[in-house]
Write a structure and sequence with these properties.
Number of domains of chain A: 3
Strand order of the largest sheet of chain A: 3-2-1-5-8
CATH class of chain B: Mainly Alpha
Shape of chain B: globular
Largest interface: A-B, 89 and 93 residues
Strand content of chain B: under 5%
Structural class of chain B: mainly alpha
Number of helices of chain A: 5
Order of helices and strands of chain A: HHHHEEEEEEEEEEHEEEEEEEEEE
Largest sheet of chain B: none
Shape of chain A: elongated
Radius of gyration of chain A: 31 Å
Number of strands of chain A: 20
CATH superfamily of the largest domain in chain A: Cupredoxins -  blue copper proteins
Helix content of chain A: 25-40%
Radius of gyration of chain B: 23 Å
CATH superfamily of chain B: Cytochrome c oxidase-like, subunit I domain
CATH topology of the largest domain in chain A: Immunoglobulin-like
Strand content of chain A: 25-35%
Oligomer: heterodimer
Order of helices and strands of chain B: HHHHHHHHHHHHHHHHH
Chain lengths: 402, 542
């Protein structure tokens, strides 16, 4: 406690001056450091709002957020202001020797601050409920039906016929930047259903302002409609429910095409797609043993009947290749006997020049396990290559061609 | 074989240690609760610093994804089960019998049992670090991720996690029974229920919550254990179980647990504000009813943690969650109007109590966003939620705990804590806390999910993450000040005397530290402020 006697006004004034000086000083330092305060302030305030929604449902959620936010800010300013003002105004000053009035309560005040918040929260509940009924729907009649299948740690997207069961095309690559992604028609209501192969995941696109858990054992679904004005845009998506060691890399992208573009795209893909080896989304029962209990005879050298028709064996198990390096002969086509032992999980073998990020020189067909395929790889010139799973970029190894 | 006599000093120190290890004195047990909790607080705080270091910039710098998952799983588990809950139980243990004028808890030996189960549980939990990895499925350990050794890549660590939590839960249940019997049976003559200090009331309601909720999570844990080790099929859909069932049972405990973690902190703040405002608590009875209402409503809101599962009756849990804001708001106004027109002595305990009010307010307000179901669809499982829960449990509980520590330290040790270091710690902790957790609101809105070890450098989250990490280390610096303050105050703090703060409640009517039997004599108890009455006389104006 300060012992020098000061009047109430001068102490408050000194305190206010100190706070003001601190704020001005801090601002000057920041400006001196080259921080544009106006921009920083705009960024800070902008950061308090979600991204602009690209779906009609998301836009409604954003409007609701704005209302809740304004109410919250009003409450914050009133109560926080009251606290700060009380603390500054009612500090004990020298000479405050008699007790302050011993107020035990005030029924009217207590009634008011019970009733007003009650009305406020009921109001917020009602507007939330109204929005909920509009954004959390799953209509049976939507013409575009997509099923997202989540598994540790990738997404695949099944494009379904209007009956909701026939698979027209399955996209195994979750990223648009890798020639895959979830392609949706803008301006049309899309019904998205969600199934999981293993643990709980969550389908989350920040610009949709929406997420829904992907729960094993149940099928969740919801509708969304991307705005016409967002045709051509790509939206980032990510698993939002902790799902294991690859949770942070379980990314996907959503790209919006116009309705006719989407129809043409899907028709093309559906025609090109080989008949699906196994309907994804219905993983093989886990009790069933993988086709081969023992690993492929990987330790043995590939049958070396000469350069022609050399065959390399490679197995994928638990989202990893069984080998980190392969060797092939330069200038001669060869085969890769690829066994995918992960039930329900798609893998392939692609070959890239130099490293896994280098130019792709061969891409084997992606297929879900458990299954086996033999790829015919064209002749490669001598050098260092990498083999990589297109679906799981962290599955890599080196291929030496000599 | 020569026999030598031990030097006197060795035998004396051994007997002190022996006395502490075998004591049934609620004050010694309470202090050991605090020491144990502080140990785990600093340990889990270091885990948090490791998490923040990894997230400071994009890319994996220090840990693998799996190690990162272990870090935040252990951080959450330890902070909740081995720091906040036992810390508050420790304050309750020390203060409640003193405040109701009792010589000890009702069951002193069970009290010692509750204490010693905690370090045992803690050691079991930490053993995961040396048995091939701790639990890595988050502090929530959702099934089926936590079910299968292959799915979460954890083995023994997850089983140790289950066993540790069952032990700690049992300790909580025993403690709750002990508190309830003590409060109902051991009050001094004149101490009617509506003259009990607010802290005692909050411990009472907390104990009811613990008693009703903890057996439920114990059942979930045992089912998980059976699933993992004996081929049960409670939670694994591949064999006919239900993944959502685990979440329902888990949150039926874990949401009331939030109130277990915050109600006693509210109680401590409600002891401190009147003393340092030199006024009674505004609306004493309203405050008690609000506490009871929070406890009751707390059992009907659990599924707001599961809005995005698609398996919840949304409107019911939404309205209940909104409604719980009402009694909480009542308390906030009671606290502010306790200070209103008072004479505030801005000592460290009051500063931390005011810190509690200002930060818990934010934690309450940003909770309303999650109560609004559609908004929760956007915010759930993002860093917004991390911000929210830390504003409640750090901005609320930890600020309350610090306030309580500075307030009762003189009673426990007979020495005052250093005011200057205390204020410096408050300022540093306040700034560090906001620097760490406020940016997380914006990270969540920008779409950063929680529990990810890495993020893309192009996602726009770099600066905010760096800011949060700087804040985290600022908090750590404030904790170094706290340790230093405790150290020098124990060695050479100003002697406190019986009643350094002009307190209201009975613990200030005995010596500091109190004798083993607590009181030589008790003042008359005519109100919730017996010492105030003794000091100023009980008149119509008071």
């Amino acid at each position: 406690m300060s012992s020098s006697p000061r009047s109430r006004t001068s102490q408050t004034a000194i305190f206010a001056l100190a706070v003001g000086a601190a704020i001005i000083g801090l601002s000057l330092i920041l400006v001196g450091l080259g921080v544009n305060l106006l921009d920083a302030g705009r960024m800070f305030v902008g950061g308090l709002f979600p991204p602009v929604a690209v779906t009609t449902q998301g836009a409604q959620i954003r409007d609701l957020y704005t209302i809740v936010f304004l109410i919250a800010v009003a409450i914050f300013i009133v109560v926080e202001g009251l606290i700060i003002w009380t603390v500054i105004r009612y500090r004990r000053k020298p000479g405050d020797d008699t007790l302050p009035p011993q107020t035990h309560g005030n029924n009217i005040a207590e009634f008011v601050w019970t009733i007003v918040p009650t009305i406020l929260v009921i109001f917020m509940f009602v507007i939330s409920w109204q929005t909920l009924n509009q954004v959390d729907k799953s209509s049976a009649d939507s013409q575009t039906k997509i099923r997202a299948v989540a598994g540790q740690f990738q997404w695949t997207f099944d494009y379904l016929a209007p009956d909701g069961t026939t698979i027209l095309y399955t996209e195994y690559i979750p990223l648009v930047s890798a020639d895959g992604g979830m392609i949706v028609p803008a301006g049309r209501t899309v019904q998205l259903s969600l199934v999981s192969n293993d643990v709980i995941h969550a389908f989350y696109v920040p610009q949709f302002l929406f997420k829904r858990d992907v729960v094993p054992g149940r099928t969740n679904s919801f509708d969304f409609k991307v705005n016409d004005s967002d045709v051509g845009q790509t939206f980032r998506g990510q698993c939002a429910e902790l799902c294991g060691s690859g949770h942070s890399i379980m990314l996907f992208e959503v790209k919006a095409l116009s309705g006719p573009e989407f129809d043409a795209w899907l028709a093309l893909k559906a025609k090109a797609a080989p008949s699906a080896p196994a309907p994804s989304g219905q993983p093989a029962p886990s009790g069933q043993p993988a086709p081969s209990g023992q690993p492929a005879p990987s330790g043995q050298p590939a049958p070396s009947g000469g350069a022609q028709g050399e065959t390399l064996a490679l197995t994928a198990h638990n989202i990893a290749y069984d080998k980190t390096s392969l060797t092939a002969t330069a200038g001669a086509p060869f085969k890769i006997d690829f066994k995918n032992e992960d039930a329900g999980t798609p893998h392939n073998v692609a070959i890239h020049q130099g490293s896994a990020t280098g130019q792709e020189v061969f891409k084997g067909e992606i297929f879900p396990g458990a299954a086996e395929k033999t790829y015919d790889v064209p002749a490669l010139s001598a050098g260092a290559y990498a083999f990589v799973c297109t679906v799981h970029p962290n599955m890599t190894g080196t291929l030496t061609v000599q | 074989m020569a026999t030598t006599t031990l030097p006197r000093s060795a035998s004396a120190s051994r007997s002190t240690l022996y006395e502490w290890l075998t004591t049934t004195d609620h004050k010694k047990i309470g202090i050991m609760y605090l020491i144990n909790s502080f140990f785990f607080f600093f340990f889990a705080g270091i885990l948090a610093l490791l998490v923040r270091s990894e997230l400071a910039q994009p890319g994996l710098q220090f840990f693998t994804d799996q190690a990162y998952n272990e870090l935040f799983s252990m951080h959450g588990t330890i902070m909740i089960f081995l720091f906040v809950i036992p810390m508050l139980a420790g304050f309750g243990n020390y203060v409640v019998p003193l405040q109701i004028g009792a010589p000890d808890m009702a069951f002193p030996r069970i009290n010692a049992l509750s204490l010693w189960m905690l370090p045992l549980g803690g050691i079991l939990l930490l053993l995961g670090f040396v048995t091939g990895g701790t639990a890595a499925a988050g502090w929530t350990s959702y099934a089926p991720l936590s079910e299968d050794h292959a799915l979460a890549a954890t083995g023994t660590g997850q089983d140790l996690w289950i066993v540790a939590l069952v032990l700690i839960g049992t300790s909580s249940i025993l403690g709750a029974i002990n508190f309830l019997v003590t409060i109902f049976k051991m009050r001094a003559p004149g101490m009617t229920l509506f003259r009990m200090p607010i802290l005692v009331w909050t411990v009472l309601v907390t104990s009811v919550l613990v008693l009703m909720a903890t057996p439920v999570i114990t059942s979930a844990l045992i089912m998980l254990f059976i699933d993992r080790n004996y081929g049960g099929s409670f939670f694994d859909p591949r064999v006919g179980g239900d993944a959502i069932l685990y979440q329902n049972i888990f949150w039926f405990y874990s949401h009331p647990a939030v109130y277990v973690m915050v109600l006693p902190a509210m109680g401590m703040v409600s002891e401190i504000l009147p003393v340092f405002s030199r006024k009674p608590l505004f609306g004493y009875k309203a405050f008690i009813f609000a506490t009871a209402a929070i406890g009751a409503l707390g059992f009907s809101v659990w599924a707001h943690h599961m809005f995005t599962t698609g398996a919840v009756f949304l409107p019911f849990f939404s309205i209940m969650t909104f409604l719980i804001a009402v009694p909480t708001g009542v308390k906030m106004f009671n606290w502010v109007f306790t200070m209103w027109r008072g004479q505030l002595m801005l000592k460290t305990p009051l500063l931390f109590a005011i810190g509690f009010l200002t930060m818990f307010l934010i934690g309450g307000i940003n909770g309303a966003f999650s109560a609004s179901v559609p908004v929760d669809f956007a915010l759930h499982d993002t860093y917004w939620v991390v911000a929210h829960l830390h504003y409640v449990l750090f901005g609320g509980s930890v600020f309350g705990i610090m306030a309580g520590l500075y307030y009762w330290f003189p009673k426990m040790t007979g020495r005052m804590m250093n005011e200057t270091i205390g204020k410096a710690q408050f300022v540093l902790m306040f700034i560090g806390f906001n620097l760490t957790f406020f940016p997380m609101h914006e990270l969540g809105l920008a779409g950063m999910p929680r529990r990810i070890a890495d993020y893309s450098s192009t996602a726009g989250w770099n600066q905010l993450n760096l800011l949060a990490t700087i804040g985290g280390f600022t908090i750590a610096a404030s904790m170094v000040l706290l340790l230093w303050n405790i150290f020098i105050s124990l060695r050479s703090g100003t002697p406190a005397g019986d009643d350094p703060w002009e307190g209201n409640t009975l613990e200030w009517a005995t010596s500091s530290p109190p004798p083993a039997y607590n009181f030589d004599r008790l003042p008359e108890i005519r109100s919730e402020r017996p010492l105030f009455d003794a000091r100023h006389g009980r008149t119509a104006e008071h």
